[in-house]
Predict the structure.
Amino acid sequence: MAERMQKFVSLGQKWPEKRAPKERATDFHEIHREFIAQKAADQAARCAQCGVPFCQTHCPLQNNIPDWLKLTAEGRLEDAYVLSASTNPMPEICGRICPQDRLCEGACVIEQSGHGSVTIGAVEKYLTDTAWREGWVKPIQPRIERSETIGIIGAGPAGLAAAERLRTRGYQVTVYDRHDRIGGLLIYGIPNFKLEKDVVERRTQRLIDGGVKFELNCNVGEDVTFDELRQRHDAVLIATGVYKAKPLNAPNDRAVIPALDYLIAANRVGLGDDVPDFTSGKLNAKDRRVVVIGGGDTAMDCVRTARRQGAESVTCLYRRDKPNMPGSQREVNHAEEEGVTFDWLAAPKSVRAGKSPAVKAVRMQLGPPDESGRQTPQEKPDSAYEVPGDLIIAALGFDAEDVSAWAETTRWGTVKADPITYATNEPGVYAAGDIVRGASLVVWAIREGRDAADAMHTYIQAQAKVAAQ
């Protein structure tokens, strides 16, 4: 079937149709329409089938991308889905929210040669959505049932990935989460226009149907102690993520809304919840001048949400320029199409509340690169100015909450875990995802949850052998 592949010279890059900016900025539905079967096959056939697949090596999950693209091009969609799902417990989610331009597609050889990458994420999304529709997504059915139990703290992507892996091996798995719904940031942090919630809910329902137990509205440390969990379970995984907002550290920053507070409120409203702070207008952008401070993907989620809520204007302040933004360039482009104004090379100095609220800012210029390789922003003298804003949101990243009573932590507050086994200093206690890595990508959380589950299995089996001797 080799003749079906390597069509990147004769066939141009095509994305699923994107809804017009004016249309999509009025609702929270996903912005791309579905690929049709022939288009998905055509785009998969553009794959060069490289001897060294850089798309795969740049994927945190090491997904076997060239092979499932080949199967898609051949029309073997169920086989393609099965291969895709063998390394990724949530391919339809990664297909939607991974920054492919920084990962697999950015590393694609034909992208580097100027032909435009294979649209890997769109094909991945198409494959898994087709699999759900056709009934190819099978329930979890362990070959054996084990007596050992696992406790997982956190029902976000790392915790869910670990739960699936461990339940597939037959362990009795219970996931504890402080929220009232399963999914963590997948439900409450990521807006619907990137990830509609029924996509998450059908995935989590599969876990429930497969025997994973969830204890929601359970705040470990308050409703149940960590020591109690250790007594209940043969091993425990800490997968809480990081939720504490980094401070703006500017005068009067109490007038600033943390990004996650704003996004959680918006997502809860979309889910039909009564949110008093939204009803009162505190967390509602309608008819307001919105200023978002930050340049990552969370900032893009905030500015695009504000546009959909009917903001009078939306401005994003970022201290570097566009090429040096940490967020996905595709997300920035979507935001620009939807009418968001970007104020590049701008840094906040203070916030003014009251009758004429505004961000007092200064202009920046880029100096030598820092340790990350990006140019260091430096303040321009005598460049102060103001940006009027009725709703000011800070999206500066997240720090870890205090979990030092559970395991040894680093100077940043994250859990210190072995980079290979994810084991902490406490026997039988493991940690994965953002609580170890710091705020990062969903795909990395999935990878670490999956691999931590494998390490926990090895540990429990070793303990069983010792007990049997």
